[in-house]
Design a protein that fits this description.
Elements: H1 3-30, E1 37-38, E2 41-42, H2 52-55, H3 57-69, E3 77-78, E4 83-84, E5 88-89, E6 92-93, E7 99-104, H4 106-114, E8 126-132, E9 144-150, E10 159-164, E11 180-182, H5 187-190, H6 203-206, E12 214-215, H7 229-235, H8 253-258
């Protein structure tokens, strides 16, 4: 065989693998890292974030909002799908939130999955709940986030609570009802959780998510999406009300007449409700656009446990 023929054969055997190798190397170099990117955004923040109790809530809030906007949590373990948080009947959602998908930072997932919810979740751990219109649809557009960040030094319950939405900013942050901080209204329900003020369950990640009655009329016009209660609080401009009446020193005669035989109880013996942050209630919408976050309907809670898996 001629030398020229041998050279051609050698080139045919050697060049294709070299070209394929170079092409693969170039493709990997051009491909963004999944740990640092999510969608069209690039995460420029490292996790965990500094504690709000160390750097101040205002500074932490800016970092947290950027963390959410950049999708820095997107690589975490998450619910297997967008899911309903309660029934949806006659075009009305009756869930604790609208539709949700929860993401768990590695520390939270380790506590939930491997430690069987024992011991404490460490500071800096985070639970991010993406929120969508109800009823749940897998192609729904994100409307907001609610977040829990563990920070034992910040408050008695041990969590920093937050609400944020795309392109959202408070108009009067100095005087508006706070969207983020310690001891917020979230605790009115979360205080009843069995452990760590959270209702999360691995069932929503590894099994079939907790389901509810979803009745969507197929032949009637669908009502516009109802805003989540957190969004309603964030957008509230004014809470109307008047001054309290003068406190009575004796029971009202009409009350005594209606409840005949009811024993009079000294004021010192009257049982008092806990502070509103630690009360347990199911908030309903009030009249004329008023929000029951400020007019809570109190109710007793009997050991809501992890088996309920209620939202976040």
């Amino acid at each position: 065989m001629k030398p020229q023929t041998l050279l051609r054969l050698a080139l045919l055997l050697i060049l294709p693998p070299l070209v394929a190798f170079e092409f693969a190397r170039h493709s990997r170099a051009q491909q963004p890292s999944t740990a640092l990117t999510s969608g069209n955004n690039t995460c420029t923040l490292s996790f965990p974030l500094p504690n709000a109790s160390d750097i101040g809530a205002a500074k932490f809030e800016k970092l947290l909002y950027a963390f959410l906007d950049q999708g820095c949590y997107k690589t975490w373990v998450a619910d297997r799908q967008i899911r309903n948080s309660g029934p949806f009947i006659n075009n009305k959602p009756f869930g604790t939130h609208n539709s949700v998908k929860v993401f768990y930072s590695p520390e939270v997932w380790d506590w939930l999955k491997h430690k069987n919810r024992e011991s404490e979740i460490p500071d800096g751990a985070m639970i991010v709940k993406e929120m969508f219109p109800a009823p749940a649809k897998q192609d729904a557009q994100l409307t907001a986030w609610t977040i829990m960040v563990k920070d034992k030094k910040g408050a008695y319950d041990g969590w920093y609570w937050s609400f944020h939405a795309p392109n959202y900013a408070s108009e009067n942050p100095a005087i508006d009802y706070p969207d983020s901080g310690f001891g917020l209204y979230c605790l009115r329900c979360h205080a009843s959780a069995e452990k760590e003020s959270t209702f999360i369950t691995a069932k929503n990640v590894e099994g079939d998510p907790i389901s509810f009655a979803i009745k969507v009329p197929t032949m009637s016009k669908q009502a516009p999406a109802v805003k989540d209660e957190h969004q309603q609080v964030a957008e509230t401009k004014e809470i109307r009300g008047g001054p309290f009446g003068t406190a009575r020193k004796t029971p009202a005669p009409d009350f005594i007449n209606l409840f005949k035989g009811l024993p009079l109880v000294p004021a010192a013996d009257v049982k008092k409700f806990p502070g509103e942050s630690f009360g347990s209630c199911r908030c309903q919408h009030g009249r004329a656009g008023r929000l029951s976050h400020f007019e809570p309907v109190y109710g007793m809670s009997f050991g809501l446990g992890r088996e309920h898996g209620l939202s976040l």
